[in-house]
Amino acid sequence: MIVKPKYAHSSLSQSNFQRISKYILENYGINLTASKHDLLEFRLQKRLQILNIDTYEAYTRFLFSKEGIQTEPREMINEVSTNKTDFFRENQHFELLQKSILPNLAKEFLGKTVPIWSAGCSSGEEVYSLGITLENFKIRYPDFNYSILGTDISQSMIFRAQRAIYPIETVSPVSHTNLHRYFLKSLDTNKYLVRVKKKIRDKVHFDFLNLMDKEYRTPHIYPIIFCRNTLMYFNQETKMDILRKFHERLKTNGLLFISHTESLIKLDQRFKLIYPSVYQKTSSI
Ligand SMILES: C[S@@+](CC[C@H](N)C(=O)[O-])C[C@H]1O[C@@H](n2cnc3c(N)ncnc32)[C@H](O)[C@@H]1O
């Protein structure tokens, strides 16, 4: 007999949807329009289950209670954020780096470490794809050094990124050569898992950073920022504010990579499109 979970009888009322989605918009910038009602209800199910709360009404009360508001938003956002990512997603960007961008960057940073930031890094695949690209470049230019910062609002994604362990099927976009060079297979043959080698892990660092923060306290000013498939969740006003803050954290002539499905047109004139979905900071103001 299938025992239905208790919360399956409950549903997220319109007023509770509005209250929670307003909180998410104001604090995380994620714009959950009315059409996302069912999605939010579905994604919050797990929180009700974990907290052993019967109804969405009781969950909403807990979320906004003095006690709940201290800890629950971070747990909730782990479930609510969309974390889809892949190794070498939109691979043209990695090819572009290898062929056209890194050779110039290596000259500019001669003897110095090139810092790169992946904002909205999810479970780390983008960061490690960058790591692989930079390590391959390093084979030809051994003096080239880099560090990568990956940030996200989802603490559970950051933990996964830090572990750097992935199911073997997720590395299908990685070439055999790169798989051999930069991944270890689980010694337990029943576990179809791989782990990114220490060589790359030592050069990456992950941290919690909410793009809604007033200022970004990153450790560097970057020649390259990746923020792909993330801006799309924000409204125009928030996007413009995020771009202003990226502008501050980019070096003059630094590059901002966004997704091929996104655009900065009409958002910030200080970014100039120089390659498909790659924008250059043109002014230091
Ligand atoms: C779809 S994933 C993109 C991952 C990767 N950049 C890629 O292109 O494959 C979007 C990520 O943005 C993160 N995100 C959403 N809102 C955020 C915010 N306010 N601050 C920081 N990260 C946020 C989500 O947690 C999620 O991991």
Walk me through the structure.
By secondary structure, this protein is α/β, with parallel strands linked by helices. The chain folds into two domains: 6-80, Chemotaxis receptor methyltransferase CheR, N-terminal domain (Chemotaxis Receptor Methyltransferase Cher, domain 1, Orthogonal Bundle), CATH 1.10.155; 92-281, Vaccinia Virus protein VP39 (Rossmann fold, 3-Layer(aba) Sandwich). It is built from ten helices and ten strands. The chain has helices at residues 14-28, 37-51, 56-63, 68-80, 92-108, 125-140, 155-163, 176-182, 198-201, 236-249, and strands spanning 113-119, 145-152, 165-167, 183-185, 193-196, 204-208, 222-226, 250-257, 271-275, 278-281. Strands 6-2-1-7-8-10-9 form a seven-stranded mixed beta sheet. Helix 6 links the parallel strand 1 (113-119) and strand 2 (145-152). The longest helix has 17 residues, at 92-108. Residues 28-30, 81-85, 89, 120-122, 126, 152-154, 157, 209-212, 228-230, 233 line the site of S-adenosylmethionine.
Overview features:
Chemotaxis Receptor Methyltransferase Cher, domain 1, three-stranded antiparallel sheet, binds S-adenosylmethionine, alpha/beta, Rossmann fold, 2 domains, 10 helices, 285 residues
